[in-house]
Amino acid sequence: MSKLEQAVDAGHTPGENVQTLSGAQAAALAQLESLLHSAPIGLAFFDRAHRYVRINERLAVINGLPVAAHLGRTIRELLPINAQVVEPILDQVFTTGEAVNDFELAGETPAAPGVVRHWLTSFFPVVEGDKPRYVGATVVEITERKRVEAALRASEARFRATFEQAAVGMAHVALDGRWLHVNRRLCDIVGYTRQALLETTFQAITYRDDLAADLARVQRLLAGEIDGYQMEKRYVRPNGSAVWCNLTVSLQRHSLTNQPEYFIAVVEDISERKAAENRLNILAEGSRVLTASLAPVPRAQALADLLVDHLVDWCAVNLVSDVGVIELAACAHREPALAARIRTLAEEMPLSLDDDESTPQVIRTGEVLLYSTIDDAMFARDPRLTALRPLGLASLMFIPLTARGQTLGSLTLARADANNPLTEADLHFAEGLGRRMGLAVDNARLYLQARTVEAKLRQLTETLEQRVLERTAELERSNRELDQFAYVASHDLKAPLRAIDNLSAWIEEDAGDHLPPQSRGHLEKLRGRVQRMERLLDDLLAFSRAGRIQHQPELVELDTLVRSLADMQGLPAGFRLVCTNQDVSTVRTLRAPLEMVLRNLIGNAIKHHHRGDGVVSVHVQRNGDRLEFVVADDGPGIAPAYHQRIFEMFQTLQPRDEREGSGIGLAIVKKVVESLNGEVWVDSSEQTGARFHFTWPISA
Asked: 3-class DSSP state for residue 1?
């Protein structure tokens, strides 16, 4: 029997006196007691009936029962739930004699009923001869460890879910660039399957022009110069297309040695943002080139070059001429030789608005066309595209150039890369660009038209000015001739009239007393007709000169001027002339023509007054920078039907035999007033008197 067996056997009876034991048993028991007491884990020994033979204090605390309460009792009696698992293991060890190590056990104890606890247990045989006499058990409390493990598993599960389902690409990358762990979003961004990505490196899929900058930052990160870095770079997809990404990288170091272990990379797809930035840059630069020249063709070519540099592989601008012909105004291609080929094709195959091809259709309808892919059927429908097939077209769009409700031409954009076709976003952007281009072309044409019209107007103005100068000179010559003619005519006509008047006077002096009354009346009428003829000639001469003689402004006292005219007119007995004004007494104006106008109007009022007495009034008031005169009488008035006619030459309201006058006075008034940009009109009706109005300038 071993010492352990002796000790277990010697001490299995509760309350047994150690003094009755042999020396060997006492020593073994003392060793066992020391072991049981000092062990940091729970220890117990069971017999074949599953009864506790020995148990240490640590296990008693775990179970929640005193040591004495365990001895001699079975595990089923004390821990019925745990017994269902432990009893088969005890039987197995008793039967096989082989230990069962590191068995995890979960259950409840009286120390914490209803609380599931976890233990790590091992069962080993205590052999007597060749058979186990007892089975020892070790028990380690692992409840807290299990809780931590569960929490860790939950945390790892959350991390994996977050990692895998993140809206951005995430990866762990080895120090040599191999992808260690990648999430689904990263695979979607770069276009690789998870397995394919794990078999390559970040260097292999980085765009060539961006690799050096990325590796330089990696070296600084490994050297500890920076804690992390962020950069915009491009990755190359399996189909050869590039995708713009925002990359954020940090370095994971060992918790103890601080040595670099792997990189943590976050990859955000910024292709749309970069595309938007590119479009904004194109719009800004496009606005500049569209305003750099006022000629439509240079503008179109500058825009085509810009679009080929930043957006497409081929661009063409077609404009409709003034005669309705579609002309290729601009063409650009990444390969200049192909651009030249397109121009040659345009000359060999000119387009007409009536054609069924894409460009005429867009110009006719004003609607866009987008072909994200180009197939054989499309080539069959459009012969021009068939001729352009060697260009390797993969996607194509046609945009109308519109302005002020008219389509002025079309913008054609094409890409040769089937992996990067033109999209709806490109179409919307191109539509806005087409509107700007249309406005630029329209403005350029309007400018050229304006320049042409301006040149014609300038030429016309010069011609007109020359004609005006010629007409002015001719008019001045004609006026001089007219003045000379009027003077000569007046002098030549007055000479015989004066002779007739003198002869008639001599006849009256010599034989007037001998003539019969009837003959004396004829003689008197003859002299009256001669005198009237002289006055008519004077009035004709005055009319011919009216408004053409230049006068200098001078200070005029209006009351004094009107009174002098009354004295000159020689008012008939019973007539009164009244002058009134509204705060206008002295003005600086043209005295001589004003005196002529007032004299004719006052004289006209006196001559055509039916009664022998009456009142003639002159009223003046300021109206802005002009004076307004009103010459009124209380005579018989003028019917409205004659208001315009009386200002015409030789127009009188009564026969000249009944009233003196040549019928020229009011015509002179009208001519003088209008020559100074004034107006004259009459306000009258029969039996209410006449009021003649005219406006007159005031000089500064």
From this structure: coil
- At 40, which amino acid appears? P
User: Average pLDDT in the 474-491 region?
Assistant: 65
Q: Could you tell me which of 288, 322, 356, 317 has the C-alpha nearest to residue 438?
A: 317
What distance lies between CA 311 and its chain's CA centroid? Answer: 21
Residue 236 and residue 583: Cα distance in Å, rounded?
94
Q: Are residues 306 and 253 in the same domain?
A: no
pLDDT in tens, 94-140: 999 999 999 988 888 887 788 888 989 999 999 887 889 999 999 99
CA atoms of 74 and 691, how far apart (whole Å): 147
> Domain of 659?
547-697
Which CATH number belongs to the domain containing residue 638 in this structure? 3.30.565.10
Long-range contacts of 656-659 (CB under 8 A, 24+ apart): 656/532, 659/607, 659/608
Give domain status of residue 276, yes or no: no
Confidence (pTM): 0.47
Amino acid at 44: A
Q: What CATH number is given to the structural domain containing 230?
A: 3.30.450.20
Do 310 and 334 form a contact (C-beta atoms < 8 A)?
A: no
In a domain, residue 188? The reply is yes
Residue 145's contacts (CB-CB under 8 Å, 6 or more residues apart) are 118
Nearest one of 238, 231, 195 to 216, comparing CA atoms:
231
User: Is the same domain home to 14 and 141?
Assistant: yes
Same domain assignment for residues 691 and 581: yes
**CA count, 13 A, side-chain hemisphere, 205:** 26
Which residues pair with residue 44 across a beta bridge? 55, 137
3-class DSSP state for residue 196? helix
pLDDT classification of 322: cutoffs 50, 70, 90: confident
**In the structure, what pLDDT confidence band is assigned to residue 558 with cuts at 50, 70 and 90?**
confident
CA angle, 468 then 474 then 478, to 5°: 140
Among the listed residues 294, 549, 252, the one whose alpha carbon sits nearest the alpha carbon of residue 441: 294
Q: Which residues contact 583 (CB under 8 A, 6 or more apart)?
A: 621, 622
Check if the beta carbon of residue 123 is closer than 8 Å to that of residue 93: yes
Q: First-to-last CA distance in the chain?
A: 150
- Looking at residue 81, its pLDDT comes to 84
Residues 141 and 179 grouped into a single domain: no
Coil, strand, or helix at residue 578?
A: strand
What are the phi and psi torsion angles at 252 (to 5°)? -90, 125
**In whole angstroms, what is the distance from residue 58 CA to residue 66 CA?**
10
Same domain for 692 and 552:
yes
**CA distance to 64, 68, 298, per residue, from 60 (Å):** 6, 9, 99
Q: Residue 326 has which token pair?
A: 């579609």
Length of the chain: 700
Rg for the chain, CA atoms, rounded? 63
Same domain? For 11 and 122 the reply is yes
In total, how many domains does the chain have? 4
Q: What is the distance between the alpha carbons of residues 642 and 682, in angstroms, rounded to a whole number? A: 10
In a domain, 13, yes or no: yes
Per-residue CA distances from 517 to 130, 514, 520, 522, 624 (Å): 201, 9, 5, 9, 61
- Using the 3D structure, point to which of 441, 475, 503 is the last residue of a domain: 441
Percent over 70 (pLDDT), the chain: 81
Q: Poorest-confidence range of 347-361, 369-383, 449-463, 620-634? A: 369-383
The single-letter code of the amino acid at 106 is: A
CA distance 11 to 53: 8
Range 155-175 average pLDDT = 82
Cβ atoms of residues 619 and 645 within 8 Å: no
Torsion of Cα atoms, 544 then 550 then 555 then 560, to 10°: -10
> Which pLDDT belongs to residue 259?
92
Are 415 and 370 in contact, with CB atoms under 8 Å apart? no
- Residue 189 and residue 234: Cα distance in Å, rounded? 11
d(CA 99, CA 115): 29
